[in-house]
Amino acid sequence: MIVDDAIALVDELLQPEGLNDLQASVFRYCWQGEGYQEIADALGYDSGYIRTVGSKLWQQLSDIMGKKVTKSNLHSVFRQYNQPSDQEKEISPQETIATPPEFPGLPLNANSLFYVDRHPIEQRCAQEILQPGALIRIQAPKQMGKTSLLYRLLEHGRAHHYKTLRLSCQEATTESFTDLNSFLRWLCRSAARKLKQTPNLEQYWDDDLSFAKSNCTEYFENYLLSNINTPIILGLDDIERVFAYPQIAQDFFPLLRVWHEEANEIDIWQNLRLIVVHSTEVYVPLDINQSPFNVGLPIYLPELKLEQIQELALRYGLNCLDGNMGAEALRPLMEMVGGHPYLIQLTLYHIWENQQQKPLVNLNNILRDAPTDAGIYGSHLRRLWETLNSSPYLCSAMKKVVSNDQSVTISPLAAYKLQSMGLIKLAGNLVTTRYKLYQDYFRSRLELNP
């Protein structure tokens, strides 16, 4: 059972009053395993009040369902309530989902059935982006769902009649990174076109290159923000590409900080809402008083939890992966790939696609071949290997990591690049391989290439 189905059932059980909005939010957060303090922080209430709301709701449900309901047993109670047993679900055929899933790899659109919320992140971001002059910073390794979250926030803005645009730094040509002036002209021209405005750059651009930042600021303030009378959400995606050009980064990122702070003094800048998305730690030295990476709302996307993976499995119609038996079946998968959203999606997609096999048999076969080129993760692993193998420096650093079962230290630059590829985890200055999948695959590869 997914959380939306559970909420619908609770609303039905509590008729004629039904669930109010606060009760529904508390139920949703508790279903996702959040504590009362985290729920209170996310919703803006006192934790004692949220605890009272929850306790009263659990008591109501206990009286109606004839079984004690608590915050900690929601999944088991609702799984058993008017549902077949785990054993029956194991032998029953898979449900057919209404919309066949697309092959995983691209960001999920804003309304995708296969996007699983990581509460309270989505709610916090949705609240923050409605604030005047908001700045949200989303960071996570590649293929963790950053752009999918950005799409949802842009859709949330459109629902509030905001103008929205996403600019990926991957769209910019190499020539756009020639210098700061070229990059900012690309930014302004691209923003205007996506907002369906005629660029008119020359009207606001001084030929003196030393005025590039002033030109860009004037363009946004006196042209884009002045011509559009609603808030504008600007999503800057893949900005780690800018890190490779320190001379641009050291001027561009402080400019974003200035725009964010202008909202405190100039009303028109309150209409600009910024979302900055990147895959790595900031590796460009910036003055702490000028950096945009220490202001605004920081969001680091975590991996999926077991409950969220089970919810996603249900959306694929894989009922056998629900409940206690499903949790046990999924543990070896999580040991192999953690809660990596893309790798989990890929696994569930292949189980769904290969419906002639029992899902649990299929999962065992997938795990058997996982760290090989023949497995379903082969393309993903080969892409990583091609990038790694192109740099003897990175190969040497990765070999040191995978050759040790304990944490090791490597150079800061190597750690930065390997983390950006999603291959390692950092704990202070210590490094470990991110997943068993990578440990096994790259240990084999690097032993073949000493």
TrEMBL record:
Gene3D superfamilies given in the database record: P-loop containing nucleotide triphosphate hydrolases
Boundaries of every vWA-MoxR associated protein N-terminal HTH domain copy: 3-80
Domain of life: Bacteria
InterPro entries: HTH_VMAP-M9, P-loop_NTPase
Protein name from the UniProt record: vWA-MoxR associated protein N-terminal HTH domain-containing protein
The organism of origin for this protein: Dactylococcopsis salina (strain PCC 8305)
